[in-house]
Amino acid sequence: MTTVPGFARRIDAARLPALLSAMPKAELHLHIEGSLEPEMIFALAQRNGVSLPYHSVEALRRAYAFTDLQSFLDIYYAGASVLRTEQDFYDLAWAYLEKAAAEHVVRAEIFFDPQTHTERGVPMGTVVKGLARACHDARVRRGTSAALILCFLRHLSEQDAFDTLQAAMPYRHLFIGVGLDSSEVGHPPAKFARVFARARALGLHVVAHAGEEGPPAYIWQALDVLKAERIDHGVQAVHDPALMQRLVAGRIPLTVCPLSNQKLCVFPDLRRHNLKTLLDAGVVATVNSDDPAYFGGYVNANYRQVFAATGMDAGHAWQLASNSLEASFAPVSEKKRWMGQLVECFESFVG
Ligand code: ADE
Ligand code: ZN
Fold first, then answer.
1. Which atom of ligand 1 is nearest to the CA of 31?
2. How far is the CA of 62 from the centre of ligand 2 (A)?
């Protein structure tokens, strides 16, 4: 475990919410389709002549009462159906990146689900080019470093994932990695062994959702079969001491999403969330927003609420922010620069 610097211990608890908001951080688990706010769903539906089964933004929001992952995914895929043109994808990503910059996110690694769009007849290039243009503009106009990770939908076949990777090849320079998301239970990582091997051979980074609702065995598979460099969620690892040892010893990051876990009933209450347990055990855990438009908050709301609920302190804040920078796939030179900014930020809160 990296040590927490002494100055982090000298920060007044009353200043913790402001520190959490101000500290430079990386967001590593954000589905761009999950940042589609109800207001934008209605605006894009009108722009594209799509009819919605809801009368108003408020009626749509009222439908956001989830009991588990699948109950959320059904609404999430329906919402994404308003995205049609390259400009739609640009507008979506730009809206997220502006919010991220305001929350001191210095690095965003953004998931996108191309199969959700290509199966509706939207070309791969429309999706990737719109998102990538927004990432480029975020760097130029806001100084935010942003990169894309293409996710395969695990409820579909491995062949479908192969076809998707093939269709994305003309845009290989516009994304840095592949991931695995959608309905977890019944779709173990090993189902995608060969397509992940292909992605690795192409020089892509690999990550996978595992241990959100699924068992620790799925996390082992993501590590041993897919060779995942990070685990998305991974909160079920606490039930397997040998797995916890593996995560700690290998410094394998978990991209944890507290408000998502609360909304999808992974934990009965945010006060029962195991983020503090993971951190105190030495796991390289990070805080992320997953699908902020659906789960009630962006990354800083995730930090603030989970800290308030579980009684974490400025030492945990240091650990989480530095973990997020370390766990990112950004160049080492950029990580060093952000670590310097993190030290400066913490020092400004001492006394
Ligand atoms: N797609 C979007 N959000 C997801 C989540 N929390 N788990 C799995 N797939 C997702
Ligand atoms: Zn996710």
1. 2
2. 22
Q: Would you list the domain boundaries of the chain?
A: 26-298
Given the structure tokens 């588990």, which residue do they identify?
Answer: 68
Burial of 342 from C-beta contacts in 10 A (0-12 / 13-18 / 19+): buried
pLDDT digits (tens, 9 = 90+) for 259-280: 999 999 999 999 999 999 999 9
Name the 3-class secondary structure at 111.
strand
What's the whole-model pTM score?
A: 0.98
As a whole number of angstroms, the distance between CA 266 and CA 35 comes to 20
Residues lining ligand 1, Cβ inside 6 A: 31, 34, 69, 76, 181-182, 209, 212, 260, 290-291
Q: The domain at 26-298 falls in which architecture?
A: Alpha-Beta Barrel (3.20)
Given a contact cutoff of 8 angstroms between Cβ atoms, the answer to whether 41 and 83 are in contact is no
pLDDT tens column, 188-212: 999 999 999 999 999 999 999 999 9
The rounded Cα 229 to chain-centroid distance in angstroms is 14
Residues sharing a CB contact under 8 Å with residue 119, sequence separation 6 or more, in sequence order:
none
